[in-house]
Amino acid sequence: MPDLSHLWQRFMLASALVVGLAIGIAATVFGYSNLATVDVNWSVFHVDGVPLWTVAVVPLALVLVAGTLYHWMDGLHHFSEHMRHRRRVHELEAEITSLREHLDHVLEMPDHSSSRLPSKAIKAEPLPAVHETESPALPEPVAQVDVAAENGAKTASQRPTRTKRTEPPTPTPVATDGGEELAAAEPAPGA
């Protein structure tokens, strides 16, 4: 969706131009239509022989000029605030950059701005060797061959399997460096 604020601003400027032109045309017509003179008396202010058109046009012109000056001053205030905020943003960005450089220096991280190597070489220490006991290899599974069964006959894989009940394995002593441990006996193959 397009940004309507820009279109609204253009519409307001165009309508202000049209209204200003209409006021100017009306003031011109009023001035040429009213050439008679009048006496202006307001409190202690007395002016004699003033053209009639100035009584209407001069206050209107003063209001328009004052409104234009107020609008320009308001725009100048907003512009100066914008520039102050922009300068503050640049100051904060520079501060963030310096803090990142300081943090990278403290943590000995590489610099973000270039690809130079760190000043201190890092050496990895080898891990100590761990004495492993060899674990027995697992028996390989027996390959099953399925023979195509006749229609309706159950194959060997579809038949229920029978299991034998065996005694739990008895632990056997295993020699270690300082004492004796018990290890579970391996089950007999095929059990």
Structural class: mainly alpha
How many β strands by DSSP? Answer: 4
Q: If you average the pLDDT, what whole number results?
A: 77
Strand order across the largest sheet: 1-2
Strand percentage lies at: 5-15%
Straight-line distance between termini = 75 Å
Residues in helices, as a percent range: 40-55%
N-to-C SSE string, H for helix and E for strand = HEEHEE
> Low-confidence spans: pLDDT under 50, at least 5 residues?
none
What can you see in these coordinates?
This protein is mainly alpha-helical and 191 residues long. It has a domain at 54-113. The protein has two helices and four strands. The protein has helices spanning 4-33, 52-107; strands at residues 37-42, 45-51, 172-175, 180-183. The strands form two sheets. It has a two-stranded antiparallel sheet with strand order 1-2. It has a two-stranded antiparallel sheet with strand order 3-4. Strand 1 and strand 2 (45-51) form a beta hairpin. The longest helix has 56 residues, at 52-107. It is elongated, with a radius of gyration of 50 Å. The mean pLDDT is 77.
Topology:
Blueprint: H1 4-33, E1 37-42, E2 45-51, H2 52-107, E3 172-175, E4 180-183
Antiparallel strand pairs: 1-2, 3-4
